[in-house]
């Protein structure tokens, strides 16, 4: 098992890629902001002592973390019977991957939520004895009842909220649709949990609703994926937990400050997945707003920022936006937010047509990747509704974009839904028969992007 303790606090850097030149009358400024966290490391160091407050952490200690595993135990998990067994084995594998000292709990989810280990609204502290006890509790799980995912999330929130830790994370597994509560109830639960913990969500088999699972992960800044074959759950759960144990810093916000007269068109994460953050802004002082990015380990992500500036004459220039990475107030920082790094977005008006009409390669690439995610969703929706001409056009455009950008993984998934005649022109034919798992995999992974080819 990997050693997840850390050697130092991660360092953040911000790089801005843009063409700052605008033609006369030009107003929209696009920039790709690459945020990189390095130096947290996964070697050396010692875990934070069990029960110690997050503020007590010193350099060389792993961040205090709490994880709640939510396992679907509804009646459908008995069909086939191996599904429940695979879910128990996968959860056991995830528990084995917990760093010693991590607080954790297991929730059995049906139309109600039951914290089956350690129980009584508590969290256990990971160690050889508690891991063995948790795996023994898993053996007693059986399938029966309905599905009300909002209740699972609210219980996870209560459990995680009681722990004074740096990192709060959930892992949720479901095999069916959320049929025992209304969409409004699930939405209310997600709104209540947003910003309090992150959550990875997985759908096992093919009887669950892709949009529900992706909405859960998107709202809680986690990942979503399909595990079509339950036999693959253990490996997937292990990877998820390794990733969770690799997180070093939580609640990092991307802060966008703009001068008077500048409008924000959108703020999107564009790598490793596409996620529109525009509607998740919280005000952070005059002309400044924070956009949540969740927890970070050693990794790099890209964001697309578009702002609209006032018109100006040839030769004029201005600061269009300032992008900062912000940590929320903590006792160790004197109760004030920390600025981890920042970058500047500029606008310069020129009559040089070559300069003002050139599209920055990073901006062009991610504009295409965002369109790719959109047309896949539109194409699959059209196919489901019987609009086969519309589906062919949209999925053909998706094949063209995937080919041009080098997104080989998405191109491979598309090839299971359409026969590709000419990738360069997007000429395709819908397949007469498509396996449900292939269609759901394409839909679930449609937002995954590739970075700009060097």
Structure, briefly:
The protein is of the alpha/beta class. The protein is 31% helix and 31% strand.
Strand proportion: 25-35%
List segments where confidence is low: pLDDT < 50 over at least 5 consecutive residues. 1-7, 41-57
Q: Indicate the overall shape.
A: globular
Strand segment count: 22
Count of DSSP helices?
11
Structural class: alpha/beta
Mean pLDDT: 92
Radius of gyration from the alpha-carbon trace, in angstroms: 23 Å
- Largest sheet data: 7 strands, mixed
Can you give the helix content as a percent range? 25-40%
The termini sit apart by 34 Å
Map the helices and strands:
Blueprint (H helix, E strand, L loop, with lengths): L10 E8 L2 E2 L5 E11 L7 E2 L13 E2 L2 E8 L9 H16 L5 E7 L3 E5 L6 E2 L2 H12 L9 H13 L5 E8 L8 H11 L4 E7 L5 H10 L4 E4 L5 H13 L3 E9 L5 E9 L3 E2 L5 E2 L4 E9 L2 E10 L8 E11 L10 E12 L3 H5 L3 H25 L2 H18 L2 H7 L3 E5 L4 E4 L5 H9 L10
Helix pairs in contact: 1-2, 1-6, 3-4, 8-9, 9-10
Key features of this structure:
single chain, about 30% helix, about 450 residues, 11 helices, about 30% strand, disordered N terminus
Describe the structure.
The protein has helices at 82-97, 128-139, 149-161, 183-193, 210-219, 233-245, 353-357, 361-385, 388-405, 408-414, 436-444; strands at residues 11-18, 21-22, 28-38, 46-47, 61-62, 65-72, 103-109, 113-117, 124-125, 167-174, 198-204, 224-227, 249-257, 263-271, 275-276, 282-283, 288-296, 299-308, 317-327, 338-349, 418-422, 427-430. By secondary structure, the protein is of the alpha/beta class. The strands form 5 sheets. Strands 6, 7, 8, 9, 10, 11 and 12 form a 7-stranded mixed β-sheet that branches. Helix 4 (183-193) links the parallel strand 10 (167-174) and strand 11 (198-204). The model is unreliable at 1-7 and 41-57 (pLDDT under 50).
């Amino acid at each position: 098992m990997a050693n997840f303790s850390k050697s130092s606090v991660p360092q953040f850097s911000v790089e801005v890629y843009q063409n700052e030149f605008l033609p006369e009358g030009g107003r929209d400024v696009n920039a790709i902001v690459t945020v990189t966290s390095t130096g947290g490391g996964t070697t050396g160091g010692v875990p934070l002592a069990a029960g110690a407050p997050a503020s007590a952490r010193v350099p060389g200690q792993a961040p205090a973390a709490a994880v709640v595993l939510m396992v679907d135990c509804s009646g459908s998990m008995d069909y086939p019977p191996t599904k429940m067994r695979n879910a128990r084995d996968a959860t056991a594998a995830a528990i084995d991957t917990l760093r010693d000292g991590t607080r954790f709990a297991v929730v059995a989810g049906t139309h109600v939520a039951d914290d089956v280990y350690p129980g009584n609204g508590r969290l256990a502290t990971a160690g050889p004895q508690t891991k063995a006890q948790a795996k023994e509790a898993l053996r007693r799980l059986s399938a029966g009842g309905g599905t009300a995912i909002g209740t699972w999330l609210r219980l996870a929130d209560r459990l995680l909220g009681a722990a004074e830790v740096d990192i709060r994370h959930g892992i949720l597994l479901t095999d069916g649709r959320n049929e025992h509560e209304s969409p409004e109830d699930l939405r209310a639960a997600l709104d209540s949990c947003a910003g309090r913990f992150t959550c990875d969500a997985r759908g096992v088999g093919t009887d669950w609703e892709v949009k529900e699972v992706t909405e859960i992960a998107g709202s809680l800044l986690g990942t979503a994926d399909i595990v079509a074959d339950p036999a693959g759950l253990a490996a997937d759960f292990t990877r998820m937990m390794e990733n969770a144990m690799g997180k070093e810093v939580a609640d990092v916000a991307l802060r966008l400050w703009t001068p008077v007269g500048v409008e924000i068109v959108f703020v999107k994460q564009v790598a490793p997945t596409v996620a529109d953050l525009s509607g998740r802004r919280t005000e952070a002082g005059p002309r400044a707003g924070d956009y949540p990015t969740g927890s970070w380990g050693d990794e790099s992500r890209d964001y697309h920022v578009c702002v609209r500036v006032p018109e100006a004459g040839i030769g004029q220039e201005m600061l269009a936006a300032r992008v900062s990475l912000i940590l929320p107030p903590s006792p160790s920082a004197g109760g004030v937010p920390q600025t981890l790094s920042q970058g500047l977005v500029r606008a310069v008006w020129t009559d040089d047509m070559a300069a003002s009409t050139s599209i920055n390669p990073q901006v062009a690439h991610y504009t295409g990747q965002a369109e790719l995610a959109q047309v896949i969703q539109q194409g699959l929706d059209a196919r489901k509704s019987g609009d086969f001409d519309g589906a062919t056009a949209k999925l053909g455009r998706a094949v063209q974009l995937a080919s041009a950008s080098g997104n080989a993984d998405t191109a491979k998934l598309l090839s299971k839904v359409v026969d590709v005649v000419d990738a360069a022109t997007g000429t395709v034919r819908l397949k007469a028969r498509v396996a449900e798992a292939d269609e759901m995999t394409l839909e679930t992974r449609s937002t995954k992007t590739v970075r700009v080819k060097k």
